[in-house]
Amino acid sequence: MRIAIGGISHETSTFVKTPTTLKDFESGFGLFRGQQIIDRFTGANICAGGFIEGAKKHGFEIVPLLWTFAYPSGLIVREDYELLKSEFLQQLKDEEASGGPVDGVLLDMHGAMVVEGIDDGDGDFIAAVRNMVGPDIPVIVTQDLHGNHSQYRVDQADAVIGFDTYPHIDMSERGREAADLMVAMLRDEVRPVMALRQLPLFWNVICQVTAEPPMNELIRRVHEMESHDGILSVTVATGFPWADVPDMGASVIVVADSNASLARSAADELGDWIWENRQRWSCAPVSVLEAIKRGESGGKFPIVLADHADNTGGGSPGDSTEILRTFLQLQLQDAVILYIVDPEVVEQSHAAGIGQTFAASVGGKSDPIQGPPVEMEVEVMALSHGDFTYDGPMYAGLTGNMGRSAWLRQDGVSVVVVTAHEQPLGPAFARTLGIECEKMKYIAVKSAAHFRAGFGRFAGAILNVDAKAIQTHDFARLQYQKRHRKFFPVEVTS
To answer: Which of 43, 235, 264, 367 could anchor a disulfide with 162, C-beta 3.0 to 4.6 Å?
Structure first.
C-alpha cells in the first residue's frame, strides 16, 4: 500500500486585517516537502506524526508530499494559496508517475481555512485532491476541534476525523486513527459513509475544555457512541466564530460503516442533545479586575489569566494592552504577560542591550480595538532570537521560534515582547529567557485554552477574562456579513 500524506493548514480570522501570505506559511510552523515531512514529524504529537506511526504499525509505504501550517491570522492571499495547492497536486502527480498510483491520501488540515474568494478553503483543497485521485481512492482528513464544517467538504472526503481534546493533546492519536481507518478501507473491511449535523451555536471557549464539565460529559457520550456496532468515528466541532463564512458554527460528523441511515440518526441524536443543552455551552464574561479578585480570594498562586479575546492562537494580533495596563495600575509584584507581539519594542530592546533601561510604548499598534500603547520605563532582563523546544504535551517533540524577543520589566511587572504570532502553550519559551513561571504570582497569557496543557499542572487558579481585543467573545459585537442563520445565544436567546 502506498499512502500519500500532507496538507495545508490554517485557522483564518476574517476579522483580522493582516493577510496571510506564503511567507507566513514558510515562517510559521513551516513548509515541508517530501522526506522533510518524515524527518520533522516522526514521533511528534501532530496528526502527520500519527500518520507516520500508522505506517510503521501497518507496514504501508508513506508518500510524503507537502505539509504546511501558518500561524492563525487573516485571509490567505489567493495567489499564494493557489501556489501551495498547485505544488501539492504536482508532487502527487510526480510521485504517481515515478512510483505508481497511490492507494489512498491522508490529509492533515485544520477546518477553518478561508482564502480570498473561497469561504471553504478546506473543502476547496480536499476537492482538488479528490479530482486528481478520482472517486475510488480513499481520502481521509483530520481536522481541528474548531473547524467550521460544510456539506461540501464532507461530500469530497471518505472520512473526516476531528480532535477529541481541548487543549489539543490527541493530535497524533487522531492521525493514527485515520491511518487505521485507511488500512481497514483498503482491506475492504469497512466502507465509510458520513453524516453532518450543523448547529447554529456560539460555543463559549471556557465551556470547551474537555477535561472539565460540561465538555467532559459530551466527550463521554462521543466515546460511548463510537463503541456501538457500525459507528467508526464521531466528531464534535465547536466551530470557529471569527471566520465570517456561511458554514460557521458548531457541528457533529458521524462516520458509519456502509449504513447512511445509521450515520444520519447518530449525528442527529448527538446534535439534538447538544442543542437541548445549549445553555451549558455559554457563560457570562469576566472582567480583568473581577478575575484578579476571584483568584486572590482563593489564595492559591500563580493566578493565570487567559486573555482569550487576544488569542494569537486564533489569529488575534497579540498586542492588546488592557491586562498590562491593569497589572501596572495595581502595582502587582511577580507578574508577567506572555506574550505581547511588538516587533518595534523588540528591536529597541536588542539595540539597548541586557541591563539597560529605556522608555517604551508597548503594544496597541495593530488596531484601535486592541487599546492604546502602554508607556513604560523598562529594564531589559534578557534577549532571545526565539528558538525553543515544546516540552508538551501539545507539539511534544517539536521546536518553535518566537522570532527576536525580549524579557522586559518595570517594577514588579514583566512582559515578554515577541515577533511571532504564537500563543504560549506552556512555560518553555519563557524558561529560555530565565523566567520561572512556577514562581510567579500573576501570569497573563494570550491564549484561550491551549495554555492549560502546559500551565495547568502548577496554576493555583485559572480564569478566562474578556479584555478589550479584536476577537471578542461577545459575539453580538462581531459584524458578520455572511452568517445567515440565527444563532444561540445572540438571536436565539433561550
So the answer is: 235
In whole angstroms, give the CA distance from residue 122 to residue 159: 14
Q: Which amino acid is at 392?
A: G
- Is residue 368 assigned to a domain? yes
CB neighbour list of residue 285: distance below 8 Å, 6 or more residues apart: 466, 473, 474
Residue 201 contacts residue 281 (beta carbons within 8 Å): yes
**Given pLDDT bands bounded at 50, 70 and 90, which one contains residue 494?**
confident
Residue 486 lies in a domain: no
Asked if the model's pLDDT at residue 28 lies above 90, the reply is: no
- Domain annotation covers residue 28: yes
Question: What confidence category does residue 285 fall into, taking pLDDT thresholds of 50, 70 and 90?
Answer: confident
Residues 6+ apart with CB under 8 A from 27: 420
Together in a domain, 298 and 368: yes
Burial (CB < 10 A; 0-12, 13-18, 19+), residue 479, is exposed
DSSP 458-488: T-SEEEEE--S-TT-S-GGGS--SS--S--B
Is pLDDT above 90 for 437?
yes
Given a cut of 90, whether residue 113 has pLDDT beyond it is yes
User: C-alpha grid cell for residue 438?
Assistant: 512556577
Nearest to 62 by CA among 108, 29, 31, 26: 108
- Determine the straight-line distance between the first and last CA of the chain, rounded to whole angstroms: 52
Cα–Cα distances in Å, from 433 out to 226, 384, 403, 420? 45, 7, 13, 16
Residue 33 above 90 pLDDT?
Answer: yes
> Which of the four pLDDT bands, split at 50, 70 and 90, describes residue 397?
confident
364 and 296 part of one domain: yes
- Let me know: does 178 contact 163? Beta carbons within 8 Å: no
Same domain for 277 and 313: no
DSSP per residue, 173-202: HHHHHHHHHHHHHHTTS--EEEEEEEE-B-
Residue 396, pLDDT above cutoff 90: no
Domain membership of residue 91 as a residue range: 2-281
Number of compact structural domains in the chain: 2
Q: In what order do the strands lie in the sheet with 231-237?
A: 192-199, 250-257, 231-237
Strand partners, 305: 444, 463
Q: Quick one: pLDDT band at residue 383, thresholds 50, 70, 90?
A: very high
The residue among 87, 120, 92, 96 whose CA lies nearest residue 106 is 92
The H or E element spanning position 304 is strand 303-307
pTM of the full structure = 0.93
